[in-house]
Amino acid sequence: MRTFYGTKLLSPLMLGTAQYPSPAILEQAFRDSGAGVATVSLRREGGAGQTFWTMIKDLGVLILPNTAGCHTVKEAVTTAHMAREVFDTKWIKLELIGHTDSLQPDVFQLVEAARILTEDGFQVFPYTTDDLIVGERLLEAGCEVLMPWGAPIGSGRGLNNEYALRAMRAEFPDVPLVVDAGIGLPSHASHAMELGYDAVLLNTAVARAGEPQMMARAMALAVEAGRLAYEADPIEARDMAEPSTPVIGKAFLS
Amino acid sequence: MKIVLNGEPCEVAAETLAALLDECGFSGRVATAVNEGFVPSSLRVGHRLNDGDRVEVLAPMQGG
Fold first, then answer.
1. Closest-CA residue in chain A for B55?
2. What ipTM score was computed for the predicted complex, to two decimals?
3. Residues of B in contact with A56 (CB under 8 A)
4. For a FRET experiment, which of A62, A130, A190, A242 has its CA 20 to 30 Å from that of B27?
5. Do residue A68 and residue B64 have CB atoms under 8 angstroms apart?
6. Residue A4 and residue A145 in contact, taking contact as beta carbons nearer than 8 Å
7. In A94-195, which residue ranges form alpha helices assigned H by DSSP?
8. Cβ proximity of A175 and A2 under 8 Å
9. Which pTM was predicted?
């Protein structure tokens, strides 16, 4: 099994901690999801930060801080340094937003920031597009994980470009790959795992569901089903039917 | 002196970053930046503030 900077994940589900109806529901949904990684952020301290930190720490999962909302290399690098100190981890989910409406990554700045942070000793999880050459550049910059988007953040559209995600899996057979963003349904999460992805990172699909806890459980089952299916070497799709019941031995009754 | 703390102008007596955190009641896990540059916690005591400094005090928050 591929590891994330030497760390083996107990579950292929990485779950965000934002947008839940209440901290109690967040906590319960997180436990029901079985997720082994929690994404978090840094924001201006308004009094709630310390309570949140205690709750997250008590979940006993790995913490992956993000640089959400950063639009420049400088901003992202500074945020990463602040996150490393606060969360006491070298892991950073590097987001460099290039477009306000689609939240599409600015891959040029992403590669640059990834290089700087790797040199500074960070272990970078880059939120990127499904572009193969950008993936190569990120690996050259020192990333050992790639996190292509399935669809824009929070859109719930699933895997917009299965072809590109398949190509990425084939191109980087030894690199841990995560579909990050765009997942809306358990079938989307299964789909990513069936393609051979190593993990799925999602947030909105669970947090904004009518019943976050039920959706958390559904996602846990989905990623497990998808992974098992990938490992089970599924059949190829075909255009014409092929009877599964034996033809030989059929009675003559017409 | 007058500084801008987390985007809000304010008048403080503190002369260092560490003293500012005490004066404004920040405790626990926070990270600091002054004028858009990260200041590690180990350097806060020695970091003198100047009039007009922009100080950011960030804490753990929900994120995706």
1. A44
2. 0.95
3. 60
4. A62
5. yes
6. yes
7. 107-119, 132-140, 162-171, 186-194
8. yes
9. 0.93
Q: What is the DSSP code (8-state) at residue A170?
A: H
At residue A120, the pLDDT reads: 97
The residue assigned the tokens 């997250």 is: A56
Residues of A belonging to the active site: 93
The owner of tokens 């999962």 is A61
Residue from A45, A95, A179 whose CB has the most chain B CBs within 10 Å, to mutate: A45
- Domains along chain B? 2-58 (3.10.20.30)
Structure tokens of A32?
């029901």
Contact A148, A177 (CB under 8 A): yes
Cα–Cα distance measured from residue A158 to residue A174, given in angstroms and rounded to the nearest whole number: 24
User: Chain A closest CA to B12's CA: distance in Å?
Assistant: 18
Give the tens place of pLDDT for each residue, A126-144.
Answer: 999 999 999 999 999 999 9
Name the residue among A18, A52, A82 with its Cβ closest to that of B31. A82
The Cα A123–Cα A112 span in angstroms is 14
pLDDT over threshold 80, residue A41: yes
Token pair listed for A22: 């209440």
How confident is the model over A45-89, as pLDDT tens digits? 888 889 999 999 999 999 999 999 999 999 999 999 999 999 999
